[in-house]
Amino acid sequence: MNGGRSETRVARWVLAGVLSLALVAGLAFLNPWLDSDGDNAGYLTLARSIAEGRGFTSINFPETIPHTQYHPLYPLLLAPIVALFPGNWLLPKLPSLLFHLLFVAAVWALFRNRTRPALWTAALLAAAVALNRHTAEHAAATMTESLYFALSYAAIAFVESRGETP
How far apart are CA 18 and CA 102, in angstroms? Predict the structure, then answer.
């Protein structure tokens, strides 16, 4: 009985270590500037539109029009930050950092029950994701990649934990 508790305790410490690596990797790329590439300005503009009560519209055109390119989830998550801290380019990046951590945890969960030796294989795979330059860069950007990765891997891990095949 104590062996199971000991293994669980070790697994929690290993996961905490991997998540710490993911946090450090994401923080290494974090900066207070608006990125000049990608769709971050579009997401921030949509978040501002929502925060100002103008709905999911493109307010960066001469005529305000309904937005049809991006899904509303990420701008909805950013809207409170944009409303409370207008002009701050650092804080809207923090949800991506959180989603990066969730992505790494979901990779851990997915491979923890799928591989043998489960603990160290899951730790190595999750650490590879955590320290990958591209995933770490996305963790520090106002972009949807970290959200997409986290939701995708969490959904697969959830389905597999229920004994189903995705």
Answer: 12
